[in-house]
Specification:
alpha/beta, seven-stranded mixed beta sheet, 41% helix, 17% strand
Length: 323
């Protein structure tokens, strides 16, 4: 939840001892203690993704390295797995650290995450906002199937550009059968969508990490739903890698915490708070899919801000089952 949400909740729960103990005080501890603590002991170095070798960069939002490694054998993906250190512990920090103040006219960013619209400013040749065109109203997110379709269209329209494909999963909301059955109604990414659309940035629901802190959800249930979200997206990543030319790398903008004890007080932390560069939060996968030929990339041309998604690739998309 945003700082605005926390302020609103403080007014609503100022006399609620449990809320102060499970939500407010941990939030203050993260901001006042953990951020400077990990900045001092861990530093802020990491991998600048634009300096790495790839033609398509698939970003899985909030994907832990260890969870990805365990899911890999059953995914059908072939390649080489490494671990990298992200420049951010949440999406806004990742975006600012990698793209702020620079331009990448050789790159098109295809995104299910509205934070790209909020935290980047004319950095890329084009941005394809899939959260605008293919929003799932039922679950308040973008499904991986739509990301594949839009990414293939972008690759057809911009054959001489690098492509970043930013999926939401395994980030909540948990859209698999287990997640829907055992967690049910939950915050999606509608808060980010409202921010990107210039609307009031308040969430209608508690997110799963605050529900965990308050004891309304069990940690093992959330872990299983999170893993299910990852298992749901990986077949689509495989399909995308099979269809695109060049070198494809799968990574994450940041990891996720499930109650690891952090800092001098050993307080349990959930989710992915900004600026806390704890190892489990900034260690991300860097999986290079097998490839033979690199794509020819050109950096020329002016920016195409918020283009209409085009590409006459309907026949191939129908063959793949995306239309």
């Amino acid at each position: 939840m945003s700082v605005t949400d926390k302020i609103r909740q403080t007014a609503e729960h100022y006399d609620d001892e449990r809320w102060w103990r499970t939500i407010a005080l941990p939030f203050l501890y993260e901001k006042a203690v953990l951020k400077p603590y990990y900045r001092y002991f861990e530093g802020d170095e990491g991998t600048a993704v634009m300096n790495e070798e790839w033609d398509t960069l698939v970003v899985l939002d909030a994907c832990r390295f260890d969870t990805f490694r365990r899911a890999l054998p059953g995914s059908g993906l072939s390649g080489t797995l490494k671990r990298k250190r992200s420049l951010g512990s949440n999406t806004p920090e990742f975006l600012r650290a990698n793209f702020d103040g620079r331009t990448f006219r050789d790159t098109v960013y295809v995104t299910a995450n509205p934070q790209v619209e909020v935290h980047t400013d004319d950095a890329f040749h084009a941005v394809v906002n899939v959260w605008e065109s293919d929003w799932d109203e039922t679950h308040n997110t973008v499904r991986p199937r739509e990301m594949v379709r839009r990414t293939l269209e972008a690759a057809e329209r911009y054959p001489d550009k690098r492509i970043i494909a930013h999926f939401i999963q395994p980030h909540y909301p948990f859209i698999g059968e287990f997640g829907q059955e055992h967690i049910g109604e939950q915050a999606g990414i509608e808060l980010s969508r409202r921010m990107a659309s210039g609307e009031t940035a308040e969430s209608d629901h508690w997110n799963v990490w605050d529900l965990l802190k308050q004891g309304h959800l069990r940690e093992d249930v959330v872990r299983k739903a999170y893993r299910e979200n990852l298992d749901l997206v990986l077949p689509h990543v495989r399909e995308l890698g099979n269809e695109l030319d060049g070198k494809t790398v799968v990574t994450a903008d940041h990891g996720n915490l499930f109650g690891e004890r952090l800092g001098p007080a050993g307080v349990r932390v959930y989710g992915h708070p900004e600026g806390i560069h704890a190892p489990d939060l900034v260690t991300v996968p860097w999986f290079e899919l097998e490839w033979s030929n690199r794509r020819t990339v050109e950096s020329g041309g002016s920016s195409e801000r918020r283009p209409e998604t085009a590409g006459d690739v309907s026949t191939r998309l129908k063959e793949l089952g995306y239309l």
